[in-house]
Structures are given as C-alpha cells and as structure tokens.
Amino acid sequence: MIKLSKINEKNFFFICVLSLFIINLAFFFLTRNNSWVSDDFDYIFGSKLYNLVNNTNFFFEISQSRYDPLFLLINQIIPENYLTWHLIVIFFYFLSGVLFYLVLNSLFKNSKFAFFSAILFTLNFSISLKSLSWAIFYSHIFNLFLGLLSLLLLIQIIKKNNLFLIFLYLLICIANVSISEGSLIYAIVNLLFYYFFLRNENNFINNFKNVLLIFVPLIYFMLINLFLFSSPAKILQDRIEIKNKKNYEEIFTKNSNNETYYYRSTYSPRNLKGFAFKLGDNVLNSLNLTILTKNHEVFDISKKNKDFIKKNYLNILIILLIILVFVLFYLLILFKNKNKLKGYKFDLLFYFVILFLYTFIYARTDINLVLSIASAMLISKLSLDLWNLNKKIISSLFIIIFLFPTIIGSFNGFNRFGNFVSEQNISDFKKLEQKTKVKYDSNFFFNNKEMKFYFYFKNFDNYESSFKNNIKVKNFAEFRTFVLKNNF
After folding, report:
1. Mean pLDDT of 219-230
2. Which is deepest, 34, 175, 206, 301, by most CB within 10 Å?
3. Contacts with 426 (C-beta within 8 Å, 6 or more apart), sequence order
4. What is the DSSP string of 367-402?
5. CA 176, CA 142: separation in Å to the nearest integer?
6. What is the pTM of this model?
7. Domain that holds residue 297
8. Is residue 151 in a domain?
9. CB within 8 A of 282, min separation 6: which ones?
C-alpha cells in the first residue's frame, strides 16, 4: 500500500489528475442514458432555428432582463448530439477539479490537503449533478472553470505583476460575467483568498490596486446593467420584487400536498420559511446528503413513507442541523484543547460567507458550486487533522458519510436531477424524434411546447417560407416567445 506521506509533489499531481479523470469518466459512463430536456430545446435548438430564419451563422444579443451575451452565443454552437455536449461539460468539470488542486497546492504547499479537497469537491454530486446533467445548465460549470482559472491567475499576478496576466485575468472575468451573473460570487472568493494569503500588509497602494482588479468584473456587471436595464442588478431585483411573487405561486401552487416542493423550488418566497428551507438544503448540500432525496427507489421507500418525509421535511432538516451543531461543538472542544482552532479561521469564514450568499442573496440551492469548494476544503482539513490526532474512526466516518450518497446515486446512474428523470427524458426525446419524421402534431406539441424548436429546426426546409412570412421580431427573446405561442 502506498503511503501518501512518501509521495512527492509531482507524483501527487499526477495521481490527482488520474483520480479526477477516472471519477469523471465513470460519471460520464453512468449518465450516458440521458437527453435534452425542457429549456434545452428553446435555448439551444431555438437559437439554431433563429439563425436559420435570419439566414445568419451567429447572433450577438442579450436576454430581456439579464446580461448574458456569451451564454446566448455558446448556445448556438452546442452540438446537436446530447452525449457529445455532455462529455464537453464533464471535461470542463474535470479541468475545474485540476485547477482547484493547483490553487490549493500553490497557496498552502500541501499536496495531500489539495488532493483530498479536489477529490471531495468532484464527488459532491448533490451540488454539481444538475449543472452536469441538464444541458443548458452548463453555464454554471463554465463559471466554475473560469472562476478557478481567475483565482489561479490572481496568484500568479501577485507573484509576478505581469501586464499580460492582468489583461488575461480581466478578459476571463468579463467573459465569465457575460455567461451568467452566477459568476459574480468568484469576485468574493478571490477577495477572501487575496486578503488571507496574498496581500502585503505594508503596501496600501498595492493592496488597493489588487482589490480594484478583483472587483473589476463586479463593477463592469453593475455598470453595464445600469446602462442596459437602468438597474445595477436587474436579475436580482426581478427575483425579489413582491410583484413577481404571484407569478411564482401560479407556477409552484402551494398546498398541503406539495408545500415542501414549493419551498424547495428555485423561486420560493424570500421569507423566514423559504430561507429556512434554503439554509437547510445548502448545509445538507455541503455534506453531499441531498442527493439521497433523489434516490428513494434505491431504498424501496413506500409512498406512505415518502409522503411522511415530504410533509415533515423542515422538521427533519431542523433535527439534522441540531445533530450537526452537537458534532461541531465536540470538534470545537477537541481542537481547542489541541490548539488547532486558529488554523480554521479562513476555512470557516470562507464556508459561512459562501453559505450566506447562496442562501440569502442568490437564494438558490442548485447552482451553488462554490459551496462545494468551501465544504470540500473544510471537510478535507477536518478529516486530515482528526486522522493526525489519532481520531481515525471519526475521520473515516466523516469521509464515509460524505461518500455514501454518491455511491447510492451511482446505483441508478444518477438518473434524477432537478425535477427530471433520465429514463423519462430519453423516452420523451424518442417520441419527439418520431414526431419529427412526420408532419406537425399539434396535440403532442401542445403539451410539449419547448420541443417545437427541435421539430422546426429539423424540418426547417418545409417551414422556411412560413417562418419568414409570419415572424416579425426584434430579437431572440421575442422569437422564443412567438414560437412558443404559435404554430406554423
């Protein structure tokens, strides 16, 4: 058996890359039975259809209420084959794991810590599964990759102060912002890492310039939103405005049978109960436990028990959080006696800042990839310290609890993500492909409106004149709405 303490840094990096490659390859193999679903059709195939209608190769636009030109541009070049695109997204996730290792090893000079953190981060499919499986959610994986790349570049800039690296950093950050507003959190990540590990306490001017550099993407985002939408954060404003609450309630009808689903949904109300669900889910996400809620068939849970869990989900969350508090209290006493608490100052602050941002600002539990980074660092550090303190059983227990949900998820090929099931996605897509070979079926597309984009894209030659004679729109957003509401 190889002793990790005897592996040199170069070999550690090789082992890490190989391990991450095997994990991601296994994930790709297990999730190969999936297909396009929901928004994939109108955003991906809709953009391809929009180009055919306008007789263009590309268009460069933004959405109606968010700055996302690069997101809309990438949608146009996504391959028509789901499996090809799925492999590309997983490859960027693999590269993100490698970047995470390089960042940690560069800062802490601790290959073992960097290795375990990268592995735990990659295996936390409670957080990453939706972004990896739902094709249009690739934006969050790309945000992750570019965010970690910007942090690695920032480390090199502080060391070398190279103008080319600064230009590259700014280019990557602005590109990241142009994909999704979810990338803004990486400015906070970079600031925290800079303050704790990279700043020069005796050089105020240099620190000011570096902090300004870190905040350039945030400043750019706010200014361009102010110019385009007369609001520095239009998308956030839309989500928290009371006037939109009724629209969300119409989508997620709250009643006694689906109250848990309502409060766990993306657009649940920003009130005490809504935040309580978000907080509980994000903490469980940190421990990689929420993937268990998507794998009830593995445990053969009866409908009666499933209904009980749904109705008492918040109470179950509270009980789990209380148990977690007791565990943390035990660790606090243990590490205080061993004079190890100071070493957790950054890890704890980093984790709780990210937890706060995802819970109360973004109010999301499905795009929180940075939380996976923060929790991986914290759990890795805890496990290694416990092992070194000869608490090997407790250390192993932490890792087993973390890995168990991923192992369970692999039994059914991680087939549940968001509100979708892979087998159903494949079945629906096969029906769509059959419909695509015959004339337009209004009954089928009445219940599957987004799929119309795929049908028209594949049969554009038959509908070209109809599209060009009837569609008078100014942009892609209007085109999507028009096609969804009309038949040709």
Report:
1. 88
2. 34
3. 33, 34, 35
4. S-HHHHHHHHHHHHHHHHHHHHTT-HHHHHHHHHHH
5. 8
6. 0.91
7. 269-417
8. no
9. 355, 358, 359, 365, 368, 371
Place of tokens 């009724």: 246
User: What percent of the chain has pLDDT above 70?
Assistant: 87
> What are 473's two structure tokens?
């729109």
* Mean pLDDT taken over the chain: 86
3-state SS assignment for residue 420: strand
Q: Does 207 fall in a domain?
A: no
- What's the CA gap between 352 and 426, in Å, rounded? 39
* 336-351 residue pLDDT tens: 766 677 778 899 999 9
Nearest to 52 by CA among 486, 482, 454, 487: 454
Residue 261, pLDDT > 50, answer yes
Q: Are 199 and 207 in contact (CB under 8 A)?
A: yes
Query: Would the pLDDT of 256 be above 60?
Result: no
pLDDT in tens, 304-358: 556 666 666 777 777 878 888 888 887 777 777 666 777 788 999 999 999 999 9
Domain count, the chain: 1
Binned at pLDDT 50, 70 and 90, residue 5 comes out as: low
Amino acid occupying residue 84: T
pLDDT category of residue 116 using cuts at 50, 70 and 90: very high
Among 416, 411, 127, residue whose Cα is nearest residue 289: 127
Q: Does some domain include residue 326? A: yes
CA separation for the pair 288, 269 (Å, rounded): 25
Residue 367 within a domain: yes
The more confident residue out of 233 and 162 is 162
Residues contacting residue 389 through CB under 8 Å, at least 6 positions apart:
334, 338
What is the CB neighbour count within 10 angstroms for residue 301?
13
**Separation CA 124–CA 422 (nearest Å):** 19
Backbone angles phi and psi of 88, in degrees to 5 = -65, -45
Rounded-to-integer distance, Cα 130 and Cα 138, Å: 9
Q: In this structure, is the dihedral angle defined by the CA atoms of residues 108, 109, 112 and 118, taken in order, positive or negative?
A: positive
| 279 token code pair | 């907080």
Q: What is the mean pLDDT of residues 401-421?
A: 86
Q: Give the C-alpha separation, 77 to 74, whole Å.
A: 5
Residues with Cβ within 8 Å of residue 171, at least 6 apart in sequence: none
Tally helices (H) and strands (E) across the chain. 25, 2
Please indicate whether residue 161 or residue 287 has the higher confidence score (pLDDT).
Answer: 287
